[in-house]
Every structure is written in C-alpha cells, then in structure tokens.
Amino acid sequence: MITMRPGSQRSHAFRLLQLLTISGEFPTKSFSVLGGVRIIRHLVLRLTSVQDVRMDKDSPAYTGKMFSVSGRGQLRTIRLCKCAFPLIDELHPGALECYLSSFGKFSSSSVHISRNHRVAEVLALCMMADIEFRPYVLPELQKERISQTEMKKCSFYIARNFKKLDNLELNKTIYTRVTGALFYSGGCYAVYNTRNAVMKWNGMGEYKALQHIIEIARLNTGLNEVDSAVLLGSTPELALKTMLQSDENSKRELRFDTVYKKVHFVPTSDDGVTLLKTLTTPDWNRKMLNAIFGDDSLYKNNGIMEYDAFIEDKYIYSHLDSDIARLYRFSEALKVQSEPFEVLCYPWQVSFLETYLGSRDILRIIDPSDLAAMLGKT
Predict the structure, then answer these.
(1) Last residue of a domain, one of 260, 280, 300
(2) Residue 146 forms beta bridges with which residues?
C-alpha cells in the first residue's frame, strides 16, 4: 500500500501527482528539481505497475497503474494513467476537471512534449519555492475591467490560460516561448525556460507577449509596469552562452535585453529554488542591498557605471539578483572604464562569471543561505 499524503515517505509521489495534474507530463531528466532522485525513480517504477494506492490513511484505496513512462533521452516523460483519476479528484473539487480540460489527448510530437516539459520544470521550481501554481486554486484573472485581485501568496499563471482571457483569437506565436507570469507582492515576472538550449529571442513575439502580460497585470493587480523576466536553464553555462550569443547579434531587436530591462537567470536546481524565493520577496532588491551594505547611501550611482556600493575606493557590483541583462550592461561599461571593482556572486555563478568577465580575482562569493536568512527566507 502506497500512501501519497504530503509529509509521508511518499510525498515525492504526491508532488508528482500535483504537477502532472497541471503540466500533463514531467521529464524524467528533471527529478533532481524535486529532490531525492533515487527515491523518486524507485517510486515511479513502483507506480508504473499495479499497486494499491491511497491519498492518506483515512482515504479509500485504489488499485491500478498510476503513472506511465514513455520516450527516450530528453523526451522520456511521465504521464498519469486513468487509474489516477480518483486520486486527482481527492486533491481538490476542481482538479480533475482542470486536468481533463487541458489533457484530453496527448500529442507524440517532440515539440509539444518539450513545451510541456518546459512548463513542468517551471511548476516544479514554483512548488519547491512555495509559489502557488494550481489554476483551480488561483484567483481568476480577467481583461474586462480594472479590479484588485487578491493573491494571498506568490502566484504563477501558465501562459496557455492567458489565451482564454481574450474574445479575439490570439496569434499562437505569442506564446511559443513564454511559459507564464509570476506575480508577487509589488511585481510580476514573465517566465521563460530554455532548458538545455541557448534561448533564441523573437523580438516581436516576446514584445506582444509582454504587452499582454502588462495589460493583465494592470487590470487585475494595479501594476502599471512589467519590465522583468525570469529565465530558467539547466546550468549556469547557458547564461554565459546567452550573453555571448547576444554579442554576436548585429540586430538589437534580437538581443535578450531589448524587451526586458531585467532578465534574472535561475538554474533548475536547489540553487534556483533559493534564488526564486529571494526574487519573490516583497521589496527584495532594497532589502538585499541593505542586508549586504547596511546603508542606502552606499549604492547611489554617480554615473560612471552600474554598481551597488563604493567602499574603500572600490566599486562593488552585486550579481546576487542573477540579472544577466544588467550584467551585460556592466560588462559593456568595463570596456571603457579602468576603476577597480569587485563582483558579488553565489558559488554556482563563479565559473561562468570568471569566463565572461575574464578574472576570478574580482569575484567575492556570498553564501546563498546567509542571504536568505538576512531576507527572512528559509
């Protein structure tokens, strides 16, 4: 008998059940995002064969195969079997309807599978960062009037649901890359997931997507500006490749920092979960700089270049927000400036920053757990 309730030894199976209800499928290559790779693999193997499963000790037991696994390599994927439907129904009164309305039939197309996997990885990071992502729990959004939608916690809305907010049929190219929008107290991010490839920006397509998100944010949350994006990727090296590719683009509209003023690179790992918690802390940037430098007067720029503090005749730049758009502008300024400087970074950023900036001596490593504690996030 497998009990899937949260907090039990089978909570990994419960997480997968919740994710699959929203994403439809999940890549086997991404178990590490959920933690306990060996345990998850063992559970998935068990649940692809006939088992007795219940939600908790007081729930009825169901017998059957709950998961199916198919495909190879990057396309190897987990999906739910019909025997899992009663369990989905126990999650929430609207959970089964949500699943059936989105995944009545699966496509074998690699494009569709990859798309679902990109969304699934974003949802997994949101789950681990305690960000609400379940459509049947989230407040409904609309595009008819100005209203104040009450969001009790950080909330991620999947892009495919935005299409339902317009009476007019939207151009499908708008949502070929953006996976959704992440709302937190005081701000909103457009969210992308490049997975294992370098992000290829479609300037006009991303601009249309951003304008749609801005309109939704304005009508529902009172935000008049959305200028930031979160870019997920499997490794920090993808951030480096994204920036180097930008250097090669002769057309500015193809650069990653054209549409969004801020692009925060978040790895699909435990480090990414910690960073996502920081980025969704209310007034996070001011709190982070105050926690590090202690005095607002330390990080008032004087126009020489972008920096965050000037201490002991040295300019200090913080890359703790992992904003690669800002880093790109900073590196451009360094080409014409000779002032001494120092870059604050996390351990996982060291390798790509050393390569991109050309030196490790200028890097000062900050423990992410220390910063999380300063911001009140654990």
Answers:
(1) 280
(2) none
Q: How does pLDDT run across 224-266, given as a tens digit for each residue?
A: 899 999 999 998 888 878 777 766 655 666 566 778 899 999 9
Measured CA to CA in angstroms, residue 195 lies from 86, 232, 254, 271 at distances of: 32, 7, 19, 15
Does residue 114 sit within a domain? no
Rounded Cα distance between 366 and 344, Å, is 7
CA distance 263 to 254: 14
How does DSSP assign 128-144, residue by residue?
Answer: HTT-B--TTTSPPP-SS
- Convert the pLDDT of each residue in 67-120 to its tens digit: 999 999 889 999 999 999 999 999 999 999 999 998 988 888 888 899 999 999
First-residue to last-residue Cα distance in the chain: 33
Q: For residue 121, is it within any domain?
A: no
Is there a contact between 19 and 123 (Cβ–Cβ < 8 Å)? yes
Full domain range(s) for residue 316: 287-374
CA distances from 35 to 43, 46, 205, 266 (A): 13, 18, 35, 17
Q: Note whether 58 and 182 are same-domain residues.
A: no
Angstrom distance (rounded) from CA 347 to CA 320: 10
Q: Are residues 257 and 292 in the same domain?
A: no
Contact 271, 346 (CB under 8 A): yes
In a domain, 112, yes or no: no
Alpha-carbon distance 77 to 71, whole Å? Answer: 6
- Whether residue 228 lies inside any domain: the answer is yes
Answer whether 28's CB lies under 8 Å from 76's CB: yes
Name the domain count of the chain. Answer: 3
Q: Which of 222, 249, 280 is the last residue of a domain?
A: 280
CB contact set of 25 (below 8 Å; sequence gap of 6+): 77, 78, 79, 106, 113, 116, 117, 120
Q: Are residues 9 and 81 in the same domain?
A: yes
Q: Are 352 and 324 in contact (CB under 8 A)?
A: no
Cross-strand pairs, 293: none
Model confidence, pTM: 0.91
Question: Do 221 and 183 belong together in one domain?
Answer: yes
As given in the structure block, the two tokens for residue 326 are 């800002």
- How many whole angstroms separate alpha carbon 58 and alpha carbon 233? 40
